[in-house]
Amino acid sequence: METIRTIYSDHPALTTIAGGLVVATAGILVYRRLRRNTTASNAEEDYPKDTVILHQIGRGPFAPSMTPFAIKLETYLRIAKIPYKNVHDMKKSSKGKYPWISFNGHSVADSAFCIEFINKKRNVDLSSWLSPEQRAVALAFQRLAEEDIYWVLVVQRWVQEVSVEFFRMAYSFPLSWLFLRFYVTPSVRRMAFDQGMGRHSKDEVLHIARKDLTALSVFIGTKRFLMGDQPCEEDCAIFGQLSQLYWQLTGPTSNMFKEEFPRLVSYCERMKDRFWPDWVECTTQGGTSKATK
Ligand SMILES: N[C@@H](CCC(=O)N[C@@H](CS)C(=O)NCC(=O)O)C(=O)O
């Protein structure tokens, strides 16, 4: 104690900064621990029977979610006409991600496994009208959207084109810029680097996005949906990703999407009109929905 007092009287500013850093670090560690504890494993399951409970973060500013996987899952529930209820919270799945579902007390993590689970429970198959070969193609395009375009989105939104303003609007966290600067950006940057997309320059990411979107646009062509005149299961995933580029991303890829890919823009509008008549009400800027807290 005596030593600290001596250091403080010799270097008051330095000691105050160091003390502040220690307190801030402790705060972040406590916060992270609390977040880790708030996962599906201790979720209360006091929900209506035979109703899918869709756990997702709050609504987004211009689309119903900031996460494409929540839009995918909710679109699927709507197309398949499954009774569901949204629970907007920050609880992560047992795999540490959003969104996830619970059904009659049983929790399922990962949007793809959620859909498989509901398909089995409710005997649903939105792609049953496709041949095995068509199904293979549809799955390949889903992977293109979720495993490549998704990372373009992540890198542009959280690494290359970070907008504190947008973040403030999207997430009503107190001190959101601090949270963005010291927690979200570094952790997403690390994830994107490990995945690989985060290692590319801005021009290279845009180049990758252009190739992916061209492939998707050429394949959809004049069809109404991915595989024909009716939507299949994979449309949900593709719409989830494209909805972010079109409505909820700022910067080069979003501009390119709107300027160079009119067919994909029409596709997004078509999916929205058909399955989301309440789209605006499900956004925080257009409707009364609550943002993520
Ligand atoms: N494969 C997962 C991906 C879900 C995912 O990546 N969710 C992101 C939000 S877009 C997430 O939870 N990120 C938080 C984190 O990784 O800590 C799915 O289909 O559900």
From TrEMBL:
UniProt KW Transmembrane helix keyword: yes
Q: Does the keyword Transmembrane helix apply?
A: yes
Domain spans labelled Metaxin glutathione S-transferase: 209-271
Q: Which InterPro entries match?
A: FAX/IsoI-like, Glutathione-S-Trfase_C_sf, Glutathione_S-Trfase, Metaxin_GST, Mito_Protein_Transport_Metaxin, Thioredoxin-like_fold, Thioredoxin-like_sf
Q: What residue ranges are annotated as transmembrane? A: 12-31
- Please provide the record's keywords in A-Z order: Membrane, Transmembrane, Transmembrane helix
- One GO location term (cellular component): cytoplasm
Q: Which CDD domains match?
A: GST_C_Metaxin
Domain Thioredoxin-like fold, first and last residues per copy: 68-161
Family under the similarity heading = Belongs to the FAX family.
Q: What is this protein called?
A: Failed axon connections-like
Source species, please?
Littorina saxatilis
